Amino acid sequence: MDSKPQIPLEVFRKMIETLPPEELAKLPPEKLPENIPVDLVEEAPIYSRSALESLILAANSYHLQKRLELQERYGEEVLAALDRTKTLYNTATMRVFRNKLSDMQKIRARWHQSHDEKKRDLLIDSVRHMQGQILDVRAENAGITQAIRLLQSTRPQKAEDQTIFDNAIAELKKGSEFIEHKLAEFFLLRLEVLNVEMQMRYREVLAFEEEAAILDQEIESLRQKLERSQTIWKRTFQRSKSNHEMEELQALIASLVAEKQNKEAAVSENDLTLWLDTIVDASVHPFTRHRIDKVIGNARRALFYLLTKYCQLQEASAMQIARNPFLQVDAKAAIRYLLMSEQFILDYFAKRKSRNAAWISDAAQVKMEDLERLEQDILSELKKSSRFQRLK
Questions:
Q1: HSE (CB half, 13 Å, CA atoms) of 138?
Q2: Is the pTM of this model over 0.85?
């Protein structure tokens, strides 16, 4: 942690291999990198190990003294901010995230090549399980942003400290941008993959809508028959026969209702929130928002359709209606579902804005206005698509 340029670790490795012991011993300790790996001594030529051990000991002593001086002048927080430069690309969080992202990119390549549905489903499942990891990565980058701001606001007490701060800030910004580029890679992959999932769910709902219409006609016909029969049975007083026939009709109706429920393509709040996250992240991130034109339109239309169906299901469940919620609805019901869908969007963005400040790094440069503009765009598009038009 010195203002003077240090010898890079890889350069130092080559010097160990090529320089004789007496030349190694002449290297200034303050020029050596911090945290030299222990295995460096074990890998060195036997004749150089003694000189190398002494040199590393002197370097460690020098850097420790510098750390103590910085800690005394600026405190633990500033020292911790400076220390972040040592682990920028190799924290546990980033290792796990990069490995998982790399694995998913490989699966995507194999899926594109083979069009194998199992690989597609594996990819969808893998992307869905990344939500917690994304929060961890964002939290880590938010910590880097805080470290940058702390160093920027700290007034150096010595001229050489300004160089230390400037170097650390530059390294932290570079690391933060690296993280944002990795997040952008994931956001693009997630949009591609979950758009496929949304289109699949849309087709399932649409197919169910057509089947449900037929089932509802059968159920309604049986209900009417049951009502007529009950009236006739009361008049004829054939209770034994009427009870038996009524039970048969009721069982048949129950069977058809159960069949319809089993075939129903459910849309959950968690699904909608994940799909909204997918669209919003890709739409507002500066490294992705200009690269999504081909897919974002279809993704939004599918989302609006599924959101409307979710609202219809919610109302049907709340009112305990056994009828199919996917049938055509009248104008008043359409307006009601639109208002419910709008409220879902408004609630989502209210929560999103409340945590936006903690998520966004300086490198991402996502402003509150970006979210507000996207919110208005989505609400406007939702109204245009509220006529239950089918996707092309």
A1: 19
A2: no
